Amino acid sequence: MEVRINPSRLTGTIHAAASKSSMQRACAAALLKQGQTILINPGRSNDDQAAIEVIQKLGADVVREDNGNLKISSTGVQPANQAINCGESGLGIRMFTPIAALSHLPITLTGTGSLLTRPMDFFDEILPKLGVKVLSNKGKLPLQIQGPLKPVNITVDGSLSSQFLTGLLMAYGAAGAQDVTITVRDLKSKPYIDLTLQVMKHFGWEVTNQHYENFFFQNTHHKGSRLPVQYTVEGDWSGAAFLLVAGAIAGPITVKGLDLFSTQADKAVLQALIDCGSGLTIAAEQVEVGPLPLKAFHFNASDCPDLFPPLVALAAYCEGTTVIEGVHRLAHKESDRALTLQQEFTKLGIEIILQDDLMLIKGGTGVKAAIAHSRHDHRIAMAIAVAALRADGSVVIEEAEAINKSYPAFYEHLKQLGASLQINQ
Fold first, then answer.
1. Angle, CA of 158, 333 and 326, to the nearest 5°
2. Do the beta carbons of residue 24 and residue 51 sit within 8 Å?
3. Cα separation of 396 and 408, whole Å?
4. 235, pLDDT greater than 70
5. What is the pLDDT of residues 246-291, one digit of tens each?
6. Active site members
7. Which candidate, 34, 161, 211, 399, has a CA 20 to 30 Å from the CA of 66?
8. For the structural domain made of 2-17+235-424, what CATH number should be given?
9. Angle CA(230)–CA(232)–CA(237) in degrees, nearest 5?
């Protein structure tokens, strides 16, 4: 699919899409909690659909009600299928592998696309210490596992991704871990662990977080019994970051449905918008943003690496050289995002320099009409689309359907706000 974005001005109000970070964790918790769960405002992205399919294969019954809510009934991990496909979701494979290992049955987990090339050595090292047999493809997918997982005191490396820890925390909780500690070295993306712990607490599991270094399970037998749980999936700050940047470049617009007290890491986009001088008004459950003269900014994205793409689009319109820290977090995404951003934004006339852990974006020079490529990465496609809004001509995005991974309605939302774009299937 190709999308042509023409120079546009945006105006109006849009409601943020559902957070796949919140949705996927809620699906996992609904599987692990024995009884019934109602998910309100469920997501519909490819990653969300993959999570639903995974919990169904692991034993949950999922019904979409007439009002759009999901009713999930579960008796815990009781695999109905011993082949699990997590799609292209990094969180999905890393979270559901320890959860699937709660079963005594042999299970094979795999994925699609770039997920097949992402490192999974973590499981080769850690799962055998928890009584789980594991066989990987030289540290890559597919993974063959056989539990049951038994919680013990363990030390893990958190430097690659917090997603591995999310899976262990949920599996330990569901296994009823008692007087057991997970010790973590060099944890990245701490806000995502806050979200994991928040979801676990909502579903009845308490974990003591000691400075993000020790996670202590005193007695985590489920406190909610089989009482039904309702969980409202948060609005997505990751997807909304692109809308907010679009507003700063080509607005003004209003984005509703965002929790200003959310633990989502990408809420930090607000700080970048403040630092660059955008016209930002923050109110309860909505954010208004419009264009003002924008200046270069300095931002540390180590804990929120998914903000690199929208912030590169923002920096393209900021006078001077913007510096974003945390490049080391970008290698194992849907693409090597540092190189991909550099290469695709060069086509748009924006110079990006990679210097150790820093990305330097030379902005204010004007965005050029071009033919660009998503590189099969949803966030790259959205970043190009946003940067194209004030280009000197039309920008074409090839393989533009990559957005379906996280935000299928993205182009439609841009059109609702007034963007001039054509979609060619």
1. 60
2. yes
3. 18
4. yes
5. 999 999 999 999 999 999 999 999 999 999 999 999 998 899 999 9
6. 306
7. 34
8. 3.65.10.10
9. 160
* 305 in Cβ contact with 266 (< 8 Å): no
Class for domain 20-217, per CATH?
alpha beta
* Cα Dmax for the chain: 62
Strand bridging mode 208-210 / 178-185: unpaired
> Helix (H, G, I), strand (E, B), or coil: what is residue 283?
strand
* Distance in angstroms (rounded) separating the CA atoms of residues 157 and 208: 19
Instruction: In whole angstroms, give the CA distance from residue 153 to residue 418.
Output: 55
> Is 2-17+235-424's fold the same as 20-217's?
yes
Euclidean distance between CA atoms 45 and 54, whole angstroms: 14
> What is the number of residues in the chain?
425
What distance lies between CA 288 and its chain's CA centroid? 23
214 DSSP β-pair partners: 183, 210
Instruction: Name every residue whose Cβ is closer than 8 Å to that of residue 398 and which is 6 or more positions away in sequence.
Output: 2, 371, 372, 373, 374
Q: How far apart are CA 25 and CA 43, in angstroms?
A: 12
The pTM (predicted TM-score) of the whole model is: 0.91
Q: Which of 315, 194, 213 lies closest to 263, judged by CA?
A: 194
